[in-house]
Amino acid sequence: MMLAAIPCDTGSSFSDLCLWIQDRDPSGVLGPIASRLLAPVIVFVIIVVCGRLIRRLFARTPALARDPQVRTLVHNVITALMYVFALLAALVAAGLSISVLLTFGGLTSLAVGLAFQDVLRNLLAGIFLLVEQPFKIGDWITVDTYSGAVQTIQLRTTALRTADGRLAIVPNLACFSHAVINHSAFDHRRFTVSLRVARQKNLAEVLPRAAELLGKNRSLAKNPAPAVSAQLDGEEFVIHCQYWLDYRAYDSDEVAADVAASLAELGMKP
């Protein structure tokens, strides 16, 4: 069964193309279809190309180049707006009325909003997280029962790399509505080295001497000053040496080993 030929629209900008295709198409269908689809496709492609150029220009600005978090937000927002606007412009170029699009868009937004409430809430939470920046990519955070280094912050989820090398995908709503502990927010962090000392040792001499040795360690922060405390554990005392360290400038494990080695002369042992 042959399809009925569709006449070319002589008022169309691509009427010549339609006639050219019809001369070579016995069915007489491909010409009108191609002429009607060409304008929406061209409009869609032009808007997408322009959107990508704008996105690249924004990505090269100094403010965005320094902050990957803001760059992610701008990239995602421009991409979403680009495709939405390109789709609407293509439909208008295809001959669809703007009023029909607005009515359909309103009904669709209502239906999508009701059906995907959690998705939309996570999207909004992701935008707020990228704007407020309670944590950044590379920070070590704890959210609810999950702890890890932030790998990516998307509009819907935040990816964490846990201490044992696993990937935890946390919904942004959890990061937004729960308490978040950012372990990397400050340069200095408190560390504790605990050592044992024989009970017969005189703590009145051991504790000041331990504090003096900690004060001589140039890697440790002077404010707050290191603190030393003792606790009785069975037949021995446990000495807790607490100090603050710029963990970005020094290796915390090497400093802990150095502290333990310097206190070994006092008869302390791990």
Give the SSE map:
Blueprint: H1 15-24, H2 30-59, H3 62-66, H4 68-93, H5 98-115, H6 117-132, E1 140-143, E2 146-153, E3 157-161, E4 167-171, H7 172-177, E5 180-182, E6 188-198, H8 203-216, E7 227-233, E8 236-246, H9 252-263
Antiparallel strand pairs: 1-2, 1-5, 2-3, 3-4, 6-8, 7-8
Beta-strand content bin: 15-25%
* N-to-C order of helices and strands: HHHHHHEEEEHEEHEEH
- Poorly predicted tracts of residues: 1-5
Number of DSSP helical runs: 9
What is the mean predicted local confidence, pLDDT? Answer: 77
Main sheet attributes: strand count, strand direction, barrel closure = 5 strands, antiparallel
Radius of gyration: 33 Å
What gap, in angstroms, lies between the N and C termini? 91 Å
Enumerate the strands of the largest sheet in spatial order, edge to edge or round the barrel. 4-3-2-1-5
Helix fraction? 40-55%
Output the structural class. alpha+beta
Beta-strand segment tally: 8
Shape: elongated
